[in-house]
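Hi U.,

Before I forget, here's the chain from the pilot set. I'm dumping it here mostly so it's searchable later in email.
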Amino acid sequence: MTKAVVIVNLGTPDAPRPGAVRRYLTQFLNDPYVIDIPQPWRFLLVNCIIIPFRLKKSTRLYRRLWTTGGSPILQHLYRLRGKLEQHLPYQRVYAAMRYCNPSLHTVLRQLHDDGVTHLTVLPLYPQFAESTTETIFEVVRRSRQDLTGLQEVRFIRQFYNHPAFLDSFEQRIAAYDPSAFDHVIFTYHSLPERHLDRIHPGTSCKSCPCEHAMPDFGSECYKATAYETARVLAVRLGLPPAGYSVAFQSRFAKKWVGPFTEDRIRELARSGVRRILVVAPSFVADCLETIVEIGLDYRDLFKKEGGEELVMVESLNSEDFWAENLAKKLLSS
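Structure:
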């Protein structure tokens, strides 16, 4: 028996150049789990409207993100894999991206060739969502018929409430001394409201009570688990209810989950708040959204609106304590 773990994150262009960014956006946005409209309309929308109009802007954003070592999210993925290997000596550890490289399809073929018989699939998303977690599971399920030696597959659907995640994020946030700030924002990547409504049909995400407490039907509702994550971390950190808020960033349309982070930042600045600490617990690795959108653009927005300082909490990335917690508390169970 040969055990293995594959950790999977979203993806990144191979380079901050138009051709590479186009290839990445083409894979990403044509995924039916991401843009869930009938295929002919999705093809036209993505390939004839979104990508042609967004390509230059997206390329500029990736150029701002890029470092001498390349894409941060890819660097963190490889470093995390290396550290997990040290903590999991009896399991092989693979790293993959859902879109572009290292391709999940390629990695699955590699682990099959390596003789893996028992596989744990860990999407690096604390809160479950169809457009992130489920699309990874679907790739694995469709590949099973070709992975003839694979006897067992274990899917880790989410870990927002697992000690491995909570202990790590609590430690990371505490290092910034939240009490020194006027307010803390827990921000999450927004999603179309219809994605959430499918999780609990009959209860609209707009009327769901999850902003105040976890409902019985909210165990895999992204909005419900986002609010629950914030509540648990706030209690652990000793934050009073008035001292923090939850918001959602990176929206593409009005009918996406809110309240929106940029609106909350404006409200706080105009109300006299001077120092904000921003935490993004829907990410475990820093990427375009955390480094550029939140860390740079939202910082500038806050100052423009009258605030003094917006500090972005660095994600877990490949920190030693995160790798150790992940290996010993989640992947070893």
